[in-house]
Amino acid sequence: MQCPKCRAPMHTYNRNGVQIEQCSGCRGIFLDYGELEALTRLESQWSQPAPPPPAAPQAYPAAAPQAPAWGAPHGGHYGGHRRHKSFGHMLFSS
Amino acid sequence: MTEDLLPALTARAAEAAHTRDPACPCVTATLALREDTTVVRHAATVAKAHAPDTDTAALAVRTAVAARLPGILLPPLAPAPAGLHGRPVTYWPYGTPVDPDDPDAAPWEEAGVLLARLHRTPLPEAVPPMRGPEKAARAVALLRGLAGPHPAAAPVLDAWADLPPWARGEAPAPGPVRLCHGDFHLGQLIRDPAPGSPWLLIDVDDLGAGPPVWDLARPAAWYAVGMLDPDAWHRFLTAYRAAGGPAVPPDGDPWPALDVPARALTAQTAARAVTKAAAAGRPLDEVEEWLVDACARMRSEPAAAPAD
Lengths: 94, 308
Description:
B: five-stranded antiparallel beta sheet; three-stranded antiparallel beta sheet; 10 strands; globular; TF_Znf (chain A); Zf-TFIIB domain-containing protein (chain A)
């Protein structure tokens, strides 16, 4: 469709489930019937306070599990290294 | 041998699959091709050629044990091993393994429960000894036999030398023996591809009578070395204990029981890593260094209690 204001072609975009037409010339926006209400509804949802964070995973020991004295210092190297090349392979072989 | 074996084994797997399902979709894959083991899949059937030096009578007993423990071990398709090119061959239903690219998704709880149930099984008559310590000794012997000196060999060999004889496979283990898997790792878990199927243990080659703590000691070693997330270790151990696993006390510190076999498995894993790196002419990677470093720390932290 053409922009009713400047006659440049308008392009359709989908924004959060709402179809809007925007003019490629003047950047003006055309809303169909009900689309303004839909956008208003979405806006009010965004401004609501964020839901509380999910509860912390339970069943984790209060203290780290016991480890032998010859073990890795500071409770281990895992974490940033977990994607190490030989890492996964070793857990799958003798 | 392997070059001749693979096509023959592939043909055998197809034959076995077609006996089970004449309308076979004929999907074939080589699942393992190691110097001592070849495993081939044809649709829902897997054929495994065991090592040339396998004790066939012992393997027959181990396979029969698997047939009798269907909720714990994958039952074989045929009760006795067959022969092919001088190798014993066993047949198994295909199962989906743990995704090697996603070890975090491994069924740690299920693994703990399966091992607890295995260890609680009354020891079958005539079952051979569990082969874990023997296999560890083999890995260390290969390290000792390296052609040139390797700077990482000494700490691993020292850690091994400090172990009590039972953990080196040179004497019977102290304490009660149970039915053990003998080579537990994440590659030893599969489940039927049908949705909701339970996980089962596979690979009976090292199964037998031994100290059940050996089966917990490889994950324990991974955790101690820093390879395994404490949460995964905790989940595994807690599930094992909750299922009545006898290898460690139900509460409290499990390390007095785990210490010696976890040292042995750390030394075994380090020995294999150093041997492989030396064969490939490459330096140790970071994880392999952790294993050697853990071995190096063992000498200054002697095992708490004489275990034999």
